[in-house]
Design goal:
It contains one helix and seven strands; from the N terminus they run βββββββα. A seven-stranded mixed β-sheet has the order 3-2-1-4-5-6-7, with helices on one face. The longest helix has 27 residues. The radius of gyration is 15 Å and the shape is globular. It starts with a strand and ends with a helix. By secondary structure, it is an alpha+beta fold. The chain has one domain. Helix content is about 25%, strand content about 45%.
């Protein structure tokens, strides 16, 4: 799991541009203005997406919303509430989450070994 900070930079028509900051990375985002979530800090998890049939980053803790993913897209219409990024941005988010999961796993194993 990891924490991100979502911030908006500009808006033009349906396109809302912003950034996700997490683990010393600042990554550009694109959202559909009709479905944006509030700016702020959110937890991320890697979970199975039934729609996309693969493991994907899930934005957790959005009030009155669920199923918000981070995935690739180039125009606002590619999203009905999800956060769009470049392929490199999505891979960076996945790397951050994988690194955090391995760190948490090592901590758990270390604590387990102590008992």
């Amino acid at each position: 799991m990891g924490t991100i900070h979502l911030k908006r930079v500009s808006r033009a028509g349906k396109a809302v541009r912003g950034t996700i900051t997490g683990s010393a990375h600042v990554l550009p985002t694109l959202e559909n203005a009709e479905f944006i979530i509030p700016e702020g800090k959110y937890e991320l998890k890697m979970t199975w997406s039934p729609r996309f049939k693969k493991m994907m980053p899930l934005v957790d803790g959005v009030k009155s919303r669920s199923g918000i993913r981070i995935h690739t897209g180039t125009i606002p219409e590619h999203s009905k509430g999800c956060i769009l990024m470049t392929p490199k941005g999505v891979e960076t988010i996945k790397e951050i989450l994988t690194k955090n999961a391995k760190k948490d796993e090592k901590t758990f194993i270390h604590i387990s070994d102590a008992y």
